[in-house]
Amino acid sequence: MTFEDVLKKARDMAATADISEIGFLAVQINIIGEAQGVFYVEVKDGRVSVEPYEYYDRQCMITISGEDFFRLVRGELDPGKAYDEGTLKAEGDLDKALKFSDIVRNKIEE
Questions:
Q1: Where are the domains of the chain?
Q2: What is the pLDDT along the chain (110 residues), one digit of tens a residue?
Q3: Nearest alpha carbon to residue 30 among 67, 64, 55, 72
Q4: Model pTM?
Q5: From residue 100, how far is each of 1, 33, 36, 54, 81 by CA, in Å?
Q6: CA distance linking residue 29 with residue 25, whole number of Å
């Protein structure tokens, strides 16, 4: 697995995400381990952007391995449990981190 694989998976996820209930969201994802890299996910004006850059005005930052990111996207990794176990680390607005996990799992619910 490479960082490009992770970025492609994130873009695929963003293309099908239900963002209808989100006004603005800016999350930076730090991938650690084998597929190391950084990208951000921004929801703004009804569009989702996924770009391989740091986002300095982010609302939160999530650090996770590439393998665990794939598990999260496939619904095999519970974000709350991963956070409690230290597999997923979040800094900043934790409500935004939870909203991001909803986007990843395509289960946006208000």
A1: 3-104
A2: 899 998 998 898 888 888 888 899 999 999 999 899 999 999 999 999 999 999 999 999 999 999 998 888 888 888 889 999 999 999 999 888 888 877 776 643 33
A3: 64
A4: 0.87
A5: 23, 21, 20, 16, 15
A6: 13
Question: At residue 21, what is the residue type?
Answer: E
Annotate the chain with three-state secondary structure. CCHHHHHHHHHHHHHHCCCCCCCEEEEEEEEECCCCEEEEEEEECCEEEEECCCCCCCCEEEEEEHHHHHHHHCCCCCHHHHHHHCCCEEEECHHHHHHHHHHHCCCCCC
In whole angstroms, give the CA distance from residue 25 to residue 18. Answer: 13
C-alpha of 93 from chain center = 13
Q: Which residue has the tokens 């496939």?
A: 74
CATH number 3.30.1050.10 is the correct assignment for the domain at 3-104: yes
